[in-house]
Amino acid sequence: MNLQVNRSISILQGADIERKVSTRYNRLTAMPRTTKSILALLILFILSYLFVQFSLPKSSPKSEVEGTKTISTPTPSPASFPSQPPGQDQVIVTKVTDGDTIHVLLNGRDTTIRIIGIDTPETVDPRKPVQCMGKAASDRAKVLLSNKTVVLESDPTQGDKDKYGRLLRYVFIDGSDDYGLGAILEGFAHEYTYNAPYKYQSDYKKAEKSAMKAMIGLWADNACTSLP
User: Fold this and answer.
1) Which residues have C-beta within 8 Å of that of residue 136, sequence separation ≥ 6?
2) pLDDT tens digit string along 161-171?
3) So what's the architecture of 88-226 in CATH?
4) Is pLDDT larger for residue 89 or for residue 227?
5) Using CA atoms, how far apart are residues 60 and 52, in angstroms rounded to an integer?
6) Averaged over 122-133, what is the pLDDT?
7) What does the chain look like in DSSP terms, one character per residue?
8) Cα dihedral 215, 218, 222, 226 sign
9) Distances in Å between the alpha carbon of 74 and those of 62, 71, 77, 82, 109?
10) Where along the chain do its domains lie?
11) Catalytic residues
């Protein structure tokens, strides 16, 4: 009995659903042709929009926010020079005092450097007159060192500073050319040992002997008559 009732209910429900579907289909088919066309175009537009949105690659975030452009500026490189071996510093020469004394920019400060191992004739010492070849030695130093990047090298055998507070250093041009050695070789400086032997003393003494033998610069017969 119950089984028959359930079957009857199912048949009635199915018939009711069929009527509803048929009614909606009839309403749809009964719509005016213009309405059907608009509906079709609308569906086509929606499908096209969805296709474009999902098919295009994602763009990167815009560089403008509310009219303000985001400008990417390169990170400035550090002002310091590349690291040097222990005991060496790469610096810029800011002033040449004479043939054996210069000023450099070291760690942001103007620093006086007394070059180890050489002594050039005086030009600025108020206690002494300008000495023979002094101006020539100073001019040579200005040409080679003014506003140039050089490497300073310390020497533990000589201490860090002299009695006047000047740093004691060797000076290398282009990282390898020994300024002091060149000054002696060309006859613009004497080899100079203050108290203790220094690192390059042997080379400097040989250079002085070579200049003396060649009779150039300070060692020339007419040095003090042809050059100031």
Assistant:
1) 188, 217, 227, 228
2) 999 999 999 99
3) Beta Barrel (2.40)
4) 89
5) 17
6) 78
7) -HHHHHHHHHHHHHHHHHHHHHHHHHHHHTS-HHHHHHHHHHHHHHHHHHHHHHHSPPPPPPSEETTEE----PPPPPSSPPP--TTEEEEEEEEEEETTEEEEEETTEEEEEEETTEE---SS-TTSPPPTTHHHHHHHHHHHHTT-EEEEE--TTT-SB-TTSPEEEEEEETTTEEHHHHHHHTTS-EE---SS--TTHHHHHHHHHHHHHHT-GGGSTTHHHH--
8) positive
9) 19, 10, 9, 19, 27
10) 1-47, 88-226
11) 114, 122, 166
Alpha-carbon gap, residue 222 to 210, rounded angstroms:
18
Inform me whether the pLDDT recorded for 104 exceeds 60: yes
Where does residue 17 rank: exposed (0-12), middle (13-18), buried (19+ CB within 10 A)? exposed
Query: In the prediction, which pLDDT does 44 show?
Result: 76
Using the structure block, give the residue that is written with the tokens 């089984």.
3
Give me the half-sphere count of Cα atoms (radius 13 Å) on the Cβ side of residue 54.
6
The yes-or-no verdict on residue 101 having pLDDT over 90 is yes
Contact 186, 214 (CB under 8 A): no
